[in-house]
Amino acid sequence: MIDEGTPTAFDVVVVGGGPAGLSTALYCTRLGNRTALIDKGGGRAAMMQDVHNVVGIPEAMNGAKLLSTGKEQLEAYGCTVYQDTISSCSRSESDSTAETAEQEQRDTTDDSDSPPPKITLCGTDTDYVAEYVVVATGFTDVRPEPPLPWTGRGLHYCLHCDAYMFTDEPVYVMGTSESAAYVAAIMLNFTVDVDLLTRGEDPTWSGETDTMLSNHPIEIVHEEVTGVENGDDGWLDSMTFEDGTVREYTGGFAVYGSDYNNGLATELGCDLNDDGTVVVDEHGRTSVENVYAVGDLTPGHNQVPIALGEGAKAGISIHWDRREFPRDPGLIDELGTVRKEDVPGIPDELLERAVEYHTYN
């Protein structure tokens, strides 16, 4: 892994090393684009104790191993991986020396088809210049204060990932919002023993939701948590409340919302939804030309398989935009017939890596 370097240019720069970013970078690299992945480390996926709901990945795999394996795969294909944090960005005029002959001809013949200025991303030690930028910076779960119990040892955030773990087990849901109330109700599909903990805060759910709760076997506990008891393996056993009661739980969910890491997307000029997610089309395109967003930063279910799929779709879309062949009929009139020496349309360094990678000989 590269930790620092000099300013350098890429076809595609992906910011964020979670499943969506890794998938995008993988597709971009294998489809012949000079690609860099910039990852500051950490993130929701890195905290997963076990990976759930990913076909072919055993649950003994944890998030950190999943991500590190992904980066190793990227580097094997020729993607450049940086550990860095992006602090700012800007648009700069395209460097004509880095353009292909086709693009230079296109620029001089038709200004309306000129590509947008390239994007410069400023890191700690390196500036990254890219034709396309993919933002995969995700979000941060809002944690209860204090975060009781430990994350991953009885405190969970993803219902669809972890509800199965608590089938027929005592479980809590922590929060005061509409979402918290409905997560508690959804957990009744898995277990009969569900408590909704408000921890001394006033509920903010609606009267209709209050009626829903009162007509389901959910116990609402308003007292604050004063103690947590863990087993020898570090997993939650029980919680003590300020009224002195002790309640046993196998685990539960904190539902306090999400802080979307949309600073870079905002600086690039991307439109945001009211909840802070980035507005994208079905391929991950944002409102800004040549800027994509994928994964938990965009609307939808926050799941590893979905993030992987979004990354794949974005990578294919970028390939469709950037591929040289088949040559556009208008360019054939200007540049002539494609010759054998013009192909294949893949950078030399990636071509060499691909040839080395072949396993069918």
Give a written overview of the molecule.
The structure is a single chain. With 361 residues, the protein is of the alpha/beta class. It has 10 helices and 17 strands. The chain folds into 2 domains: 232 residues, FAD/NAD(P)-binding domain, CATH 3.50.50.60; 112 residues, 3-Layer(bba) Sandwich (FAD/NAD(P)-binding domain). The strands form 4 sheets. Strands 1, 2, 3, 4, 5, 6 and 17 form a 7-stranded mixed beta sheet that branches. Helix 1 runs parallel beside helix 2 and helix 1 packs parallel to helix 8. It is elongated, with a radius of gyration of 25 Å.
Secondary structure elements and their pairing?
Elements: E1 8-15, H1 19-30, E2 35-39, H2 63-77, E3 80-83, E4 88-92, H3 101-109, E5 118-122, E6 127-135, E7 139-141, E8 155-156, H4 159-162, E9 171-174, H5 178-186, E10 194-197, H6 207-214, E11 218-221, E12 225-230, E13 236-241, E14 246-248, E15 251-254, E16 258-260, H7 263-268, E17 291-293, H8 304-322, H9 329-335, H10 348-357
Parallel strand pairs: 1-2, 1-6, 2-3, 6-17, 8-15, 9-10, 9-15, 10-11
Antiparallel strand pairs: 4-5, 5-6, 7-16, 12-13, 13-14
Helix pairs in contact: 1-2, 1-8
Report a brief summary of the structure:
It contains 10 helices and 17 strands.
The radius of gyration over CA amounts to 25 Å
Average pLDDT works out at 90
List SSEs in N-to-C order. EHEHEEHEEEEHEHEHEEEEEEHEHHH
Uncertain spans, ≥5 residues at pLDDT below 50? 1-5, 94-111
Report the sheet-strand fraction. Answer: 15-25%
- The level of helicity is 25-40%
Mass-distribution shape? elongated
Number of strands: 17
CATH class of the largest domain: Alpha Beta
- Distance from N terminus to C terminus (CA atoms, Å) equals 29 Å
Instruction: Summarize the main sheet.
Output: 7 strands, mixed
Keywords: Flavoprotein, Oxidoreductase
Protein name: FAD-dependent pyridine nucleotide-disulfide oxidoreductase
InterPro entries: FAD/NAD-bd_sf, FAD/NAD-binding_dom, Ferredoxin-NADP_redctase_2
GO molecular function: thioredoxin-disulfide reductase (NADPH) activity
